[in-house]
Amino acid sequence: MSTSFKHLWQLDPDVRFLNHGSFGACPTAVLEVQSALRTELEAELGMVDLDLRRIGAAYYTGNCHKWMCSPKGVGFLHVRSDLREQVRPAVIGHGANVRREGRTRFHDEFDWAGTSDITPYLSVPSAIDHLGGQLPDGWPEIRQRSHELALVARDMLIEALGIQPPAPDDMLGSLASVPLKIEDEDRAAIQSRLFQEHSNEVPVLSWPGGERPCLRISAQLYNEPGDFEALCRALETLLPDA
């Protein structure tokens, strides 16, 4: 876990990013592809191993900017083929006027709505390939590395806070949350001080039905154990009675 991947992102070297997705999470190389795609179109006028077919999902939607590190604003909607005639977009696409040969109504209406910039969507394959090419075994190794680092970080935090694990290891992916011994009205101030005074970008969130707010960490390729050690030191400073 000592190999650094920080150079792949446009990160402020003075800040430790421990909440993946809260900033511009797209790697530099993918941003370059998006820029090239936008230029090309203008010249012509202008986080799990998921197999939706295997699980038979009727509907599924998700964002690509977080774990896949595509440009922000990119998401997808999956509708099983036998249900697509029932689903229409909220904003009708150009395909509602002119159908294209070899394309379904579903794709014609959803693929390009209004005058939206579609270059972020077209950048997704490059984001997948680029990030997957950073480790020898690709995405399975990325997921495993991130999971292991999240567990290491969670264990650091519960030791520093003197608490028990709030969830078993096999329920965690690349995220982990731990409760803080603070009142809910203090969470925004603690999150701000973690960033302003200690350069840690990490959310402190209300937990519905929970007794205490939770601090939530994310583990991504640019993170190393030292990042979370620094977070623990910051918490020990800010919460000496924790």
Distance between the termini: 29 Å
- Helix content range: 25-40%
DSSP strand content:
5-15%
What would you call the shape?
Answer: elongated
Number of domains: 2
Low-pLDDT stretches are 39-46
Succession of helices and strands: EHHEEHHHHEHEEEH
Q: In terms of topology, how is this protein built?
A:
Blueprint: E1 16-17, H1 28-43, H2 52-55, E2 59-63, E3 75-79, H3 105-110, H4 119-122, H5 124-132, H6 138-161, E4 175-179, H7 187-196, E5 200-201, E6 204-205, E7 214-218, H8 225-238
Parallel strand pairs: 1-5
Antiparallel strand pairs: 2-3, 4-7, 6-7
Helix pairs in contact: 6-8
Summary?
The protein has 242 residues and is an alpha+beta fold.
Overview of this structure, please?
With 242 residues, the chain is of the alpha+beta class. It is built from eight helices and seven strands. The protein folds into two domains: 22-132, no CATH class; 138-238, Alpha-Beta Complex (Aspartate Aminotransferase, domain 1), CATH 3.90.1150.10. It has helices at residues 28-43, 52-55, 105-110, 119-122, 124-132, 138-161, 187-196, 225-238, and strands at residues 16-17, 59-63, 75-79, 175-179, 200-201, 204-205, 214-218. A hairpin with an 8-residue loop joins strand 6 and strand 7. The radius of gyration is 21 Å and the shape is elongated.
Which characteristics define this entry?
242 residues, 8 helices, 2 domains, three-stranded antiparallel sheet, alpha+beta, 7 strands, elongated, Aspartate Aminotransferase, domain 1, two-stranded parallel sheet
